[in-house]
Amino acid sequence: MLEANTKRLQAEMDLVKRLIDKDSDALAFLYDNYSATLLGVIIRLVNNQDLAEEVLQDTFLKIWSKIDSYNEQKGRLYTWMHKIARNLALDKIRSKEFVKMGITDTITDNIKSSSEFQVDNQLNKIFSEDLLKHLNDDQAFIIRLMYFQGYTGEDVSKKHSIPLGTVKSRVRAALKKLRIVYGIKLKSNDESF
In the predicted model, is pLDDT for residue 56 greater than 50? Predict the structure, then answer.
């Protein structure tokens, strides 16, 4: 398993280098392999196919233009891309344009459970199953909601009656455990996740 993780990380770093070098084939590979997963993240938040596709396009433009800011010491490439997609989707929800369209009243109105919307993307399934098997049930539950379904810590706290401090502690513990499992070292002064 360690050898497989090493190969995956090396392939990912090779892809990042190609993206930094502005290799359009690398961007096409990235799009082909991650667009369905990222679209699923975005759709869960904006609840509108056309807007989700617009946000997806913005996501890949931002990935392309900001790839040199990616830091493998802070996490995997997918996690970084997921964060970009999620943040752009949340920005879209908060935009005046979105509110004028009358699509939503609040962000939480648009969060769907995994049973309502499933992304048929093998990469996401493999990534999430591989990731979550290293966590205890409480940690895996919170990570599923926040990282794969687009919930915020507050959303998890309110919807599942878990104190916000507990949610944050479980996320912190899960990320710490995953850093150890995947051999990701942080700078001593960087405790953020």
Answer: yes
